[in-house]
Amino acid sequence: MLAKPSRIVVTSVLVAVAWLATASRAISVDDWTTSPQIRELYEKAKAEGEVSYWGQVEYDLVWAGAPFNKRFPGIKVNVVADQQGPTKMIAESRSGKISADVTQQTLGSVLEVQKRGLLAKVDWSLAGVDQRNVLFDGEAGTIHNFVYSILYAKDKVQAADLPHKWEDLLDPKWKGKLVISDFLFPRLMGFLALEWGPDRAEQWGRDLLDKQGILVTNVPRENFLKTGERLLAVAEGVQAAAQYTREGVDTGYVIMNLIPAGQFLVAALKDGQHPNAGKLLALWLASDEGKALRAKLVDEPDIRPGSKADLTAQIQSSGAKVLFEDMSNFNQRAEYYKRFSPLARGM
Amino acid sequence: MVAIPSESTSARGADVGIAGGGLLAGAVLATIYLISAPLFMLLASAFRGPRDMLPFEPGTQWTFANLASIYADKTLYSAVIPNTLVFTAGSVTLTFTIAFTLAWLVERTDMPLRTTVFTVVLFPLLVPGIILGIAWILLLAPRTGLLNLAIRATFGLGGDGPLNIFSMGGLIFAQGIALVPFVFLLLTAALRSMNPVLEEASNTSGASPAVTFFRVTLPILRPGILAPLILATLVTLEQFEMPLILGLPARVSVFATRIYFELNPDTDLPAYGRAAAVALPFLAAGMLLLWFYNRMTRRADRFVTITGKGYRPTRIEIGRWKLPALAFVTLYAAFAAILPALVLVWASLFGYQSPSWAALSQVNPTGYVNMVYSARFWMAVRNTFLVAGGSAVLVTIIGALLSWTILRTRWPGRGVLDFVSFLSIGIPSVIAGLACMMLYLSLPIGLYGTVWVLILAYSYRLAVTTRLSKAALTQIHGELEEASHVAGGSWLTTIRRVVLPLLAPSLLASFVLLFIIGFREFTLPVLLQSRENEVLSVIMWKLFIGNQTSQAAAVGTTIVVLIIPVIFLMRRLLLGREAT
Prior knowledge:
Oligomer: heterodimer
Radius of gyration of chain B: 24 Å
Largest sheet of chain B: 2 strands, antiparallel
Helix content of chain A: 40-55%
CATH topology of the largest domain in chain A: D-Maltodextrin-Binding Protein, domain 2
Number of helices of chain B: 25
Strand content of chain A: 15-25%
Strand content of chain B: under 5%
Distance between the termini of chain B: 28 Å
Radius of gyration of chain A: 23 Å
Structural class of chain B: mainly alpha
Largest sheet of chain A: 11 strands, mixed
Number of strands of chain A: 11
Shape of chain A: globular
Low-confidence stretches of chain B: 1-14
CATH architecture of the largest domain in chain A: 3-Layer(aba) Sandwich
Low-confidence stretches of chain A: 22-29
Largest interface: A-B, 56 and 62 residues
Order of helices and strands of chain A: HHEHEHEHEEEHHEHEHEEHHHEH
Number of strands of chain B: 2
Number of domains of chain A: 2
Order of helices and strands of chain B: HEEHHHHHHHHHHHHHHHHHHHHHHHH
Number of helices of chain A: 13
């Protein structure tokens, strides 16, 4: 018969197991940044001294400089927010010199640049990026998702009254109480059309306009929520809840039964003026560390399979179905946008 | 109306000399340079396709597809065009009524506080359109608008309303108010230059003030009124801010919003070709209006009021009408200036907190603090003054020289120049920006990404200056210049010492208008931006679309604060001229 292990032995084993678990996690975080290939790339990037990081909205970009420099000192991150970014990159490519080194855009915008051969191939595995999160044969990596939701001002709507299905918005109790962005309305309908079929999605949109009197607007929706002019902001991104709250509107979001998820990508430019720094920044942004920091600092989560974001756990526990934007449904949704846009825009 | 020998009004610049000729030729060449690229880009883009390529890319071809897809759309004829006509007619009527009344009160009467009124009237021009729109929503949203709440409380009404800013009427009202400063500035220049001798003669002859006004004053002012009227019509036609902010919720779609939607399309690359196709009717409208203007002002000698005889502008004493006049101004100021200012300042300090005494304790000046300590902000201030001021000076000088060339010389092609310079107002700024981007990427002169490219890009808007200068020159008799030549003055001396002082009100008005427009312009600098040439309006816009509303409002407030001294200075200069 084996002797019962002493308390000291058991405790030591437990401590050793805990230490190994922590150490292995620490090692895996440091691994990719300490690999020889990354160190070599870093030295080349440091010699370049800076990197030009482009996107559409400045708020989505400025957070990255400090943590990136903490990991890779000596490379200044210059942020440029430009909604005409793809046009400029295409125009500048004709002169052989592009101002951007790294671009962060929606799938559709990256596609316009990619199909013109402007993106550099990157070995995303160097940053531990799952191959499922790499697109265009290595020319782009996923970063975060635009998670469609419904936002509400917490002091004006009770949580128990909130809808959890998109069809619930047709309940007469929401008549005259809904607001939506003209930009996001047809996009939401496009996603819903993938699940419901285009005719049902179109009818739903028409009913929202004609029967529910949804207000379609071009201005930020938090003002409507704050004043109570409208109670629910439909098709907003989850991250907007935190932004609205920072601006003085205590805002909550709803996990719907069907969750459209737009996809943002990051890519390095082939003819950028700082190519090595561009690749290094792109790798870092697409890494688990970059994604985790993006979710923490600017509330932009990645909810793709394998994500450790809190929102991913919330979605999984709710049992909601996620409709990811990807190349398999991109062209179909583009056709749906063309069909639904005039409806949303009153034309 | 006094008939004046027509030969005297046609000093045909025979003695401009080499220096003068060079200066005028330089202005003509500058005009062609500044306008041809945007104009060519507009025309070329409209006829280049396919849709999913940019107009300048290899592989694009000449095509009518853009025009076909826009003009084959039935809703264009059933909804968009009728809406546009109603919107434009309504807005311009409202604008002109208010602006003319205000300009008359400020320039031709003894109403008190004229300098203050002048600045207050211009205030809405300083405020970014998006802020004006949001201010109207706060005031007149049907359910929670502050004015609606007050009316319902006062009269015991239930439900929503009674006023609704999200309607065609609301849109006309908001747009009409928004354009008043622009037309006011143009009208004050014309009224200031008017010699009252004909009005005095009419009054002396026994005509009532109303008869004098309709049968003497208005006809004399015809060039000075038509120019702002035409410009206001064209500007309203291409306005998309108010129609987007207030018309979209009301399901009212106008022509200009089509341009916006083409640039923010279903897929992710802007459809410049389709946007250009939508913009073509603006050019056609410009051509039609210019023809109308030239026809109405064809006998220029009929409008001359400034001759070799000196004159002192007189002011009509309005006596007991001073109070109603001030009440009118106050009402306008309350809606057009005070409220937007309060919204701007409140948003900069309190974000979206609803106005209340309790909210005052939550004041947050972080937006201003961040700004002051930001090197980027101060660089943007420098850039903004440089770009707005530089382009305003450039356009004012070129426009004045061009107007003189058109009116005073027999140079061939001057009619075409007049036409082309006027058409510049019909070119959407996004198309002009695209043209500059392509031009300066192609030219190996290192301007791309600098503030200088912004100055050149802003300077395609010659229509305002040429209309103003032409209208003013039409009122100046050629005998004044002839007298200077006879006395031995060179052409340059004549221009400097005779013509420019008489043109000064128009030129100053043009400069201030262009400066303000340049200060708040954001489409061009967004498209041509780099880290080195960032301006304040771009910073504000980026903060706004990033949902950093209070910081955006702080920058917006700063923009207004920086422009106000310029307006005061201009007014002082004009008053100084009047005193001497």
